[in-house]
Amino acid sequence: MGRVTQRRKVHKIVLDGSPQALEFPVRHREDVLAVEEPLEIRIDGLSFSVTMRTPGSDFDLVAGFLVSEGVIWDAAQLVSLRFCSGEDEDGVQTFNVVEAQLRPDVVRPATGRNVFTSSSCGICGTDSIDAVHKSSHYSPAADPLTVPVQTLASLPDRLREAQAVFDVTGGVHAAGLFRVGPDGTPELLCLREDVGRHNAVDKVIGWALREGLLPLSGTVLQVSGRASFELVQKAALAGIPVLAAVSAPSSLAVELAESSGMTLAGFSRGTSLNVYAGHERVSVPAPVGPATG
Questions:
Q1: pLDDT given for residue 43 in this prediction
Q2: b vs e for 115-125, b when ≥16 Cβ sit within 10 Å of the residue's Cβ?
Q3: From the centroid of its chain, how far is CA 191?
Q4: Cis peptide upstream of residue 215 (ω within 30 degrees of 0)
Q5: N or C: less crowded end of the chain, CB within 10 Å?
Q6: Rounded-to-integer distance, Cα 134 and Cα 73, Å
Q7: Beta bridge partners of 5
Q8: How many Å apart are CA 194 and CA 178, to the nearest integer?
Q9: Does residue 64 sit in helix, strand or coil?
Q10: What is the spatial distance between Cα 74 and Cα 210, in angstroms, rounded to a whole number?
Q11: Parallel, antiparallel or unpaired: strands 219-223 and 186-194
Q12: Peptide bond before 287: cis, by omega within 30 degrees of 0?
């Protein structure tokens, strides 16, 4: 998988389960790791942010990051993306710097990442939610999408089936964008994997931006981990009406989903799920009552 994975020698220690054991067998083997490297994002020659990511789909990552930061919201605002020159100690191109050129009328962000999602930025939850709404150009609230509960519960398995990097490393998150057909059948539009779950979501949103698909009306974003405020923010700014997570959401994530008119589901495990916001979009079959004569 190129720069996405790396082989390393490891010492595998096998415990036999006996607390009285004095020795445990040690095996020498190779393991496959997900690569993690820094990516510097520049806008018109100025450094904007550095994120740790798994290499691959870097242009999607940068495009999605700019959407998630409220910098752009339309493919026409992004003039170009290119790798900048950069070499490691062996003189090999690192591909760890991407420059985005924006259309002249796009308001440039302040130099250095200035986001409203940081837990250490000194603002309260209400301010964070207000900042998202002020930056948003799409509203999921009016999206008429309804998703059968069986379909929504099936998406984690569909996501897992498509996770090629996770299959060999066990060390990456995934985000999958689905469109649900009239008969309730989900179609996987895009899947991205990364050591950072926020990066995986940015890669999906960036792909959609570059394909001219924003806003992502009528879609469901399924993620492999928990649903944080930041993930709900990214989905809301892309116009995604439904976000489902395998694990739990945070309290602020639920508040943002409610105020944005999104549907937020958590603990989606195939046989059950919790709907924390926007339950009206989840279609549940009516119970079958006793037969009447």
A1: 96
A2: bbbeeeeeeee
A3: 9
A4: yes
A5: C
A6: 13
A7: 34
A8: 18
A9: helix
A10: 9
A11: unpaired
A12: no
Contact 188, 45 (CB under 8 A): no
Identify the CA nearest to 274 among candidates 253, 255, 252, 247.
247
CA angle 111, 259, 232 (to 5 degrees): 55
Would you say how long the chain is, in residues? 293
> Of 153, 157, 138, whose CA–CA distance to 262 is shortest?
138
Q: Catalytic residue positions? A: 121
CB 99 within 8 A of CB 84: yes
Neighbours of 204 (CB within 10 A): 31
| Token digits of residue 115 | 């986001």
CA-to-CA distance for 170 and 54, rounded, in angstroms? 13
